[in-house]
Structures are given as C-alpha cells and as structure tokens.
Amino acid sequence: MTSKPNTVVGTLESRLFINGRWRNAENDKTFQVYNPATGEVLTSVSDASAADGRAALDAAASAQRQWARTAPRVRSEILRSAFDAVTARAEEFATLITLEMGKPLAEARAEVTYGAEYLRWFAEEAVRIGGRYTTAPDGRTRLLVHKRPVGPSLLITPWNFPLAMATRKIAPAIAAGCTMILKPAALTPLTSLLLTNVLADAGVPAGVLNVVPTSTAGAVVSGLMTDSRLRKLSFTGSTEVGRRLLADSATQVLRTSMELGGNAPFLVFEDADIDAAVEGALQAKLRNMGEACTAANRFLVQESVADEFTDKLTQRMAAMVVGPGMSAGTHIGPLIDEESRAKVHELVENAVRGGAVVRTGGSPVDGPGYFYRPTVLADVEPDARLLREEIFGPVAPVVRFATEDQAVAAANNTEYGLVAYVYTKDTGRTLRLLEEIESGMLGINVGVVSNPAAPFGGVKQSGLGREGGTEGIDEYLETRYAGLSDPYA
Ligand code: NAP
C-alpha cells in the first residue's frame, strides 16, 4: 500500500547523485522506502547497480587531486554553510527522519541538532590540520611531517541515525580534502538525499560527494573495494557485516574506520542517586527505541538497591506512550521492520524461558507498524541470549551483582566494547571503573555520551578508529614525512 505523499517526501530528489548531477540508475531500476509506523510505501528511490558504483568512483577519483588542493578555508566555509542550511531546514530533516526511520519527532529534531553539529565542528577542524618540523636527534637531518588526504573514500551508513551517521563521515572527509561515495542504508536513504541536496547547494564541487542508494549493497560495495582507486572505507553498522568488510579491505589494503555493534552495560552501585540512575537508564535504553549502538543492553545493579531501581524503572517504562513518531506525545516509535521486531521478541521469549520475570511489556503491539512494548525483565539468568546479543529494542534486562569485582567482570564479559554507563558517587570507584571497564566510551552518571566534540568509537569487536573530536579528521588523513639535509653542512 502507498500512503499519500508527505510534501517533504514529494518534493525530494530521489535519484543517484554522481559527478554533481542527479541521474537515474543505469538500468532505470528503483526500490521502495517504507514508513515503519504504518508499513506503507513512502516513495521509490533510484537503485544503483555495480556499474553506477563504478561511475561514482570514476567521479570521485577524477575530482580528488583538485579537491586536495582546495584551500582549507574554502572547505571549511562549505561545511559552515551546510550547517546553516541544515539548521534552517531542521523541520524538513526531522520529518524525513521520523517518516523513514520511525523515531518520535522530538528525537528526530535532536538528531538534526546533533547531526548538524558535525558539519560545524569539522568546519572548525578543517583549518587546523597541523604538521611539524623538527631536528633529528643526531642534529644533522631535519624532519618535516605533514598530513595529506587519504583519497577517495567509501562511506557506508546504517539506518538508525540517518542524518548523524552521514554527517559524522561526510564532514571530516570534506574537511580533510577527500572525495567520497556515500552508500546510505536501503531502509533510510531519504535523509541522505536531502543532505546531498544541501551540500551541493553549499558549494561541494562536482565529483567530491557521490551518493548511491542501492538495494544490492554487497554487489555495489564489493565492486568498489576491489578497485585500486578507492583508498578508504568508513563503515558504521553491525559487527557481522563489519568483519566481512574488514576482510575484503585486505585486498587493496584500505584504510578503515569501523563503527560496529555494542552491548553496553549500565552499572548501578548502592551509593548512586537511584532516581538519577533511573532517569539515565531511560535515556540510555529508550533513545531511538533502543535501536542505538550505544543503547544500554544490560542493567547490572547492586543487590541492596536492585529492587528499588527495578520498581522505579518499571513504573517509568510502563508509563511510556507507544505510537507513530509523527503523533504528538509519543515517547516510543515503531521498530524499523518486522524482522527486527521478531528478533526482539525472540530474545525476550528466550530470557523468559530461562526464568526471567516480565515486570512490564514483553510483547509486540497488534495493528499496523512494528511497535514493541517497553519491557523490563527482572531476574535474568546469566546465559540469556539478550545479555550477549544486541537487543536493538526497548527491552531492559536487570541482573544483580554483589561486589565491584563481580560488576566489572560481568561488564567485560562480552566481545563488544563500545560504551558503558556507571552510576556511583564514589570517586575512587569511578576512577577504577574508568581504568578497568573495557569500552571506548564511559558515561559517568549520564545516560548519553554522543557528542561531536568527543572521539566516538569502540574497543574489542566494537570497532577501529574514532569519529568526532579532534581525532575524527585524522581518519581521513595520511601522515607523511620528508627528511631534509643539514642546512649548516
Ligand atoms: P548492517 O546490516 O551491518 O548495515 C549497515 C550498512 O552496511 C548498510 O548501509 C547496509 O546496506 C550495508 N551492508 C549490509 N550488508 C553489506 C555487505 N555485504 N556489503 C556491504 N555493505 C553492506 O547494520 P544496520 O542494521 O544497518 O545497523 C545496525 C547496526 O549498526 C547495529 O549493530 C549497531 O550497533 C550498529 N551501529 C554502530 C554505530 C557505531 O557508531 N558504533 C552507530 C550506529 C549503528 P543495506 O541497508 O542495503 O543492508
């Protein structure tokens, strides 16, 4: 079924963007984009083939040399005007995000603010690419260290933050002087297409940014990764696909940035402010309906405060309004598709079979769309699958611990290491956890850590590299050096 087109969707350019031009796929194919709140078709988008991918790389490779010579100030100003334009068109972006991805409009607006900030942040970083000139220890040679753009980059994004995941890659690539091909998620290409429009209007030259939505990611991407003109892959998505792409990157020895899955522990100690911990838990669990790599996946709570924390969390989760993201008052939108919802329910059923107690929720919502009730599970057994796998839904499993050592061991008992959250007022404990918990990011008495000014990324199988912060631009730069003879010789 196709719904009446929303005006933002109706006026959107939905073709491929290659070498500064909007064009159909070479075989004129399209694929459909759905609204997860209704299951209805929103619109159709051009479906890039492997040949279209190659055409995008032709454009990126041809534009690279000239783009690398562009003055940093010019690249900075382009990003700054894109920031202004996204901010001015925030409502259009938020509407598209909610329509194609499902999150409540208020959260989509927050994503626009967050996503736009990467454009402003890297506008500021573009003019601060440094180098150094030193004397070698023997006093004779001089060492000149400088940074150059890596070259044509392939940027692959997931569906859960359609704007922010794109700006977090595009902005540092532009700032560094790399040309690029963006392959957005097939479930949510519309926001990327509006962003492309904005960036082209902001002055990104032809060939620098090429965008190829596709329903055949494997074919398009493998065609690009075996081409020696491609020099970098920046991927955000699941660890499973990331592992495969890392193996494929070996063929051309590509630079890689991999932002992969998570299994965040959320630790509550007996000295914590429990009301603040519940507030943080709601943010860490329910932001994006739990469909975030940073979502709290396991609540580890010290025995003496476990009942109080679980009761208060249950009360708040049960009061959440589930409904379409476009409706005022909605706290929890739909999950992205039926397959994802079925997986969330399967994980809940597996935990319940193992002895977990459903304190609230525990089932899908009947009717159109892919809604799932906010769920709290108490007394979850240590071998439950949802303690090992990403839940990607509004489900909070609570597990008790007795000592700090047990808490740390449980927190680290995962192959993932993206983020962890701790609630405690004890400074000594905080510092011990900072050193002992194996994660790229730690929230200390806060439920959200994402910030464009901070280096976002994971350890262990959550990934390689960092996005944002002063580190983010380095992912798109090579360090080179020249040795110079002694000027006094
Ligand atoms: P996904 O299935 O791994 O897909 C991510 C992207 O990879 C999509 O664009 C997808 O295209 C593409 N892709 C899939 N198979 C591919 C293949 N064989 N070759 C090349 N590209 C391929 O992940 P997702 O379901 O979209 O996103 C959820 C995952 O992303 C979760 O695991 C989450 O934790 C992770 N994530 C991590 C971060 C972070 O910063 N660490 C941030 C957000 C999300 P299609 O859309 O066409 O399948």
Q: What would you say this structure looks like, in words?
A:
- By secondary structure, this protein is of the alpha/beta class.
- The protein has 2 domains: about 280 residues, 3-Layer(aba) Sandwich (Aldehyde Dehydrogenase, Chain A, domain 1), CATH 3.40.605; about 180 residues, Aldehyde Dehydrogenase, Chain A, domain 2 (3-Layer(aba) Sandwich), CATH 3.40.309.10.
- The strands form 5 sheets. It has a 7-stranded mixed sheet, with helices on both faces. It has a 6-stranded mixed sheet with strand order 9-8-7-10-11-19, sandwiched between helices.
- Strand 8, helix 7 and strand 9 form a beta-alpha-beta unit.
- The longest helix is centred in the N-terminal third of the chain and has 21 residues.
- The radius of gyration is 23 Å and the shape is globular.
- The structure holds NADP nicotinamide-adenine-dinucleotide phosphate (NAP).
- NADP nicotinamide-adenine-dinucleotide phosphate binds next to helix 8 and helix 9.
- The site of NADP nicotinamide-adenine-dinucleotide phosphate has 27 residues, from helix 8 and helix 9.
What is the SS-derived class? alpha/beta
The CATH homologous superfamily of the largest domain is termed: Aldehyde Dehydrogenase, Chain A, domain 1
CATH class wording of the largest domain = Alpha Beta
User: Which kinds of small molecule does this entry bind, naming each only once?
Assistant: NADP nicotinamide-adenine-dinucleotide phosphate
CATH-derived topology of the largest domain: Aldehyde Dehydrogenase, Chain A, domain 1
Residue windows where pLDDT falls under 50 for at least 5 positions: none
